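Take a look at the protein record below and tell me what you see:
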Amino acid sequence: MKRWMGIVLVLALLATGCAGMGQKKQGSGENNPHKAQSSHPPKAEKVRHGHETDSAKNRPAKPRIESIGFLEPMDRKKAMKDVHDVADHLTYVSFFSYRVKSDGDLIPLNDKDPLRVTRNHGALPMLVITNFHEGNFQPDIAHRIFTDPKASKRLIRNVVRVMKQKGYKALNVDFEHIREKDRLLYNGFLETILPIVKREGFTVSTALAPKASDRQGGPWHGAHDYAFHGKVADFVILMTYEWGWTGGPPMAVAPIPQVRKVLDYAVTKIPRKKIMMGAPLYGYDWTLPYRKGGPPAKRLAPQEAMKLAQRSGAKIQYNNRDQAPYFYYRDNGGKKHVVWFENEQSAQAKFDLIKEYRLRGISYWVLGEDFPRNWSLLRENFKIRRY
């Protein structure tokens, strides 16, 4: 009997111990079926004593890039707000533009207050000089600067003086619509001005039309020598946008296949770390049917496009080839429209290109267009260099 009671006692103790161990395991959360099915994501583990968690080790580091936002300071108060809203996300704010005159003088901007806001936000102000006059880029002005030594020297002196007086930290030379036969003359001008400005302690850059090969000629492309610009400038800005434009047929402003062709060519001529890829902060609204020479398309901000789609009950669609959203709607007069614009998905497609091609960064045309998701997404993808 004692032997039998002893066996019963041992069995009871064993049963109690197993139950206790089971309760401890479930209470700790390990192999808990209720916890596994929870809809809430697990909390991030803290790093203690300088040791990284496994998740932190496996997480890819954000690429560090530079970012540029072009500003047209037409209205002083609006320009100040435009800079204030996004300058924390920018390496440079590019002031577009100081217009070059044939004699080498500069037509200035009303830039005092937006320059102050730029500096207050820790971004670097960039001076942009152009051959822009009377609503377009003028090849005659560029040719005169390239061929008249007095005008060229006067321009260089004026550029350095303005940069020192106003506190600009970088220069961008944006000469466009140049005669194709002036290509070597333009190279010679850059070979003169950029080293002088750089010796004064400033960063120097140029803007390049989007080319897919060196054989691409004409007034917008022919005079832009990718290899030479990549050699003499600290970096270049590729203007990879405006395939869809105000005077052209409806299409995405920066279709990814076209942008990719430009990048494929550019990286064969220019070091990747000198390439800033251009990106639009806007879209266009075309009246249909499109006719060449007809009403120009209206530029509109991404946020404005979204509101228009909501008001008109339009269904937003996405073109997977061009990586851009669009929609159709009818105005109050019954006319049909199509809008191509930018959204979170199209912005991400452009960020993916920067990562894929390992570029220096991104350059936005133009500040003042409402697109708040772009800036938060930019920070999610990259660390922005600040100097």
